[in-house]
Amino acid sequence: MNIIQAAILGLVQGLAEFLPVSSSGHLILARSLMGIEAAAQTGTYIMLDVLLHAGTLLAIVIVFWKDWWDMVFHPIKNHTLVLLIVASLPALVANTLFGDMLETFFSGWFLGCSFLITAVFLMLAEALSAKKRPTADKPGLKHAIIMGVMQAIALLPGVSRSGSTLTGGLASRLDRKAAAKFAFMMSAPAILGSLIFEGKDAIEMGYLQELALVPTLVGVAVAAVSGYFAVRFMMRVVSKSSLYWFALYVAVLGFVVLLLQLAGSPLVPAFVIPAITPAG
Questions:
Q1: How far is CA 134 from CA 10, 41, 107, 139, in A?
Q2: Which of 174, 182, 98 is closest to 142 using CA atoms?
Q3: Which of 32, 65, 109, 157 has the fewest CB atoms within 10 Å, measured from its CB?
Q4: What φ, ψ does residue 214 adopt, rounded to 5°?
Q5: Nearest CA to 7 among 183, 160, 219?
Q6: Looking at the chain, which runs of residues are DSSP E strands?
Q7: Could you give the CA distance from residue 219 to residue 38 in angstroms, rounded to a whole number?
Q8: pTM for this model (two decimals)
Q9: CA angle, corner 141, sides to 136 and 143, nearest 5?
Q10: DSSP notation for 207-267
């Protein structure tokens, strides 16, 4: 991987993490188009994914730094930290129980279907927002649980985490701006958990040392900067504009990917259901 490839992956991660279009799905596509998808299955590239996500974590910390400061130093008055922990539990349980299966079984072949699932979620979110008036302008326990379940569903490769959690927020009748903000902040515990657990494994297996320093730093920096602007952009878009345009984009992309997969195009991951090998 060279510096240009790292910068492209960082840009894709930064933008797609917060635009409701799936960062994991777009990273798979970007790697395929650059001819490095096969190499991306190695532990080294898995670690790169974690570090690129760390760049977007930095963006979230900077954009909402006042909120983080208040919740950390006033935990009794500000319940957001507790709600974020509650919202993270469904994905933690799902990843513990089904993480290996999700990685090996769904992988890139499920990509087109995942984009279509994201499109359905976004259309559902917009329809619910138009039909039901919000009853809360701040997240509560109900919102955290529902959005947490939707985040667990987004463990499917190619399903947008921000799109899924936003759908959960609007379905639970949370105000659009509050739902977007909480959905974005929910990414912080997930990314931090990946850094701790996958980072530990990567160091023990020597994957971290195999990453080229300069390209990795460039990718992380680009992810942080593009992620910052993506958050700012989406906070304005969610409040004033329709999500149907994002739904249309991922729906068209999903159909195109499916057609290319069925046609056996080398530009996208093969549409092949892998066999499940028994452990041991």
A1: 35, 42, 36, 11
A2: 174
A3: 65
A4: -65, -50
A5: 219
A6: none
A7: 19
A8: 0.84
A9: 55
A10: HHHHS-HHHHHHHHHHHHHHHHHHHHHHHHHHHHS-THHHHHHHHHHHHHHHHHHHTT-TT
- pLDDT 10s digit of each residue in the chain, 280 long? 789 999 999 999 999 988 999 888 888 888 888 877 555 455 566 778 888 988 999 999 999 999 999 988 887 788 899 999 999 999 989 888 876 676 665 556 688 888 999 999 999 988 888 877 878 889 999 999 999 999 999 888 778 999 999 999 998 989 989 999 999 999 898 888 877 777 777 777 776 677 778 888 999 999 999 999 999 999 988 877 888 999 999 999 999 999 988 887 777 766 544 433 333 3
- 28 close to 7: Cβ distance less than 8 angstroms: no
Cα(246)–Cα(238) distance, rounded to whole angstroms? 11
Separation of alpha carbons 169 and 201, rounded Å: 34
**Which pLDDT value is given to residue 4?**
92
* 3-class DSSP state of 174: strand
Task: Specify the DSSP element, H or E, that contains 91.
Answer: helix 80-101
User: Residue 28's closest CA among 262, 253, 275?
Assistant: 253
Long-range CB contacts (within 8 A, 24+) of 61-70: 61/188, 62/228, 63/184, 63/228, 63/231, 63/232, 64/181, 64/184, 64/185, 67/181, 67/185
Radius of gyration for the chain, computed over Cα atoms and rounded to the nearest angstrom: 18
**10 Å Cβ neighbour count for 62?**
13
Q: Give the Cα separation of 150 and 143 in Å (integer).
A: 11
